[in-house]
Write a sequence for this structure.
């Protein structure tokens, strides 16, 4: 039952923050920046809040570091994907760029969580 309650809290908190960020996105000009306030930040904040309340600051810190490493991998992906998609078209370019994301993430996790 405890696990179900935590899962329900994560869903409710994530949903509430998705709505809040969507409303914030509606207020932002130009509209192309509205995507910055979409689901990923709100789900991350909701997850970290629940982890902090249920498992403590050490686990929340570890998850925060994991999110930062994943974000660094995503930045690497976007920098490489732009050129690869133009050169190889969408599917192949994205797949190749995903290798960069995985490589950066593995290296980051190895460096941070050794």
């Amino acid at each position: 039952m405890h696990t179900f309650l935590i899962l329900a809290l994560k869903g409710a908190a994530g949903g509430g923050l998705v709505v809040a960020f969507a409303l914030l996105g509606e207020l932002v000009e130009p509209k192309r920046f509205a995507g910055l306030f979409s689901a990923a930040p709100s789900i991350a904040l909701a997850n970290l809040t629940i982890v902090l309340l249920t498992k403590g600051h050490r686990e929340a810190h570890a998850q925060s570091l994991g999110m930062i490493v994943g974000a660094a991998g995503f930045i690497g992906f976007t920098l490489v994907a732009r050129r690869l998609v133009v050169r190889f078209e969408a599917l192949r370019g994205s797949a190749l760029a995903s290798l960069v994301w995985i490589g950066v993430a593995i290296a980051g996790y190895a460096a941070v969580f050794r």
